[in-house]
């Protein structure tokens, strides 16, 4: 299978809340989004958790319950990225800002959750991470160190370091194609990835989203529309060897 200009080299794909929007998971900064109805400082910082753990637990318990609803399924965009990995294997890496499990459920495996995972909990005392499907609360016991009340969502809060930054930097420095999907480009370090890719070499950069992100001008190629339409279309062109450097 010839991918044309992308016959060799790795592909790094950054995804944000927009890729899961059509699956029924609300985004953060669109109208009516998560941060319109919740203050970040009340539910998504270490200080918030220290101050009022039950409130923070309930914020994530409600999102975890919503994610578990039968109608929440991977959409065509998640599936297109899983197909790309199926065809190109280890050349494809998804770095997602999302804490849902829709990429996994679509079949993606080469995946980094840089902001953590809603379906995992971590012991603040010993660091043990475990699956967490049901509600989490202050009574939860760490099964590794037996500490009660130290379990927290395995999610990166504002003011905390995102996960796997070295591995991500390595992938960005060595990719031939960087695709950013469904993110507003509001939060660093993810918002700076396109800049890192441009600094490191000849990679082609593509933005696929519903509307231009704040980093729009840094992308060599841009397509706008619902992810469930534009992502499968782009992947089909890529696999047919038709995707390439933006027309001059
Ligand atoms: N298809 C494609 N893109 C979409 C769709 C859709 N159907 N719906 C919305 N979008 C786009 C919006 O245009 C917007 O650019 O998705 C983006 C969502 O932006 P945000 O809500 O800011 O989400 P995200 O960029 O993922 O936020 C980054 O901020 O709050 C933190 O940790 C949180 O990971 C999150 C980070």
Describe this structure in words.
By secondary structure, the protein is α/β, with parallel strands linked by helices. The longest helix is centred in the N-terminal third of the chain and has 15 residues, at 53-67. It is 33% helix and 19% strand. It is elongated, with a radius of gyration of 19 Å. It starts with 9 loop residues before the first strand and ends in a 9-residue tail after the last helix. The mean pLDDT is 95. It has 10 helices and 9 strands. α7 links the parallel β2 and β3 (111-113). The strands form 2 sheets. The protein has a 6-stranded parallel beta sheet with strand order 3-2-1-7-8-9, with helices on both faces. The protein has a 3-stranded antiparallel beta sheet with strand order 5-4-6.
Per DSSP, what share of the residues sits in E-state strands of 2 or more residues?
15-25%
Strand order of the largest sheet: 3-2-1-7-8-9
Q: Cα distance, first to last residue?
A: 26 Å
- The percent range for helix content is 25-40%
The secondary-structure class comes to: alpha/beta
Which hetero ligands occur in this complex? adenosine-5-diphosphoribose
| Count of distinct strands | 9
Give the ordered list of helices and strands.
Answer: EHHHHHHEHEEEEHEHEEH
In the predicted model, the low-confidence regions spanning at least 5 consecutive residues are none
The chain-level mean pLDDT equals 95
Principal-axes shape call = elongated
Tally of helical segments: 10
Rounded to the nearest angstrom, the radius of gyration is: 19 Å
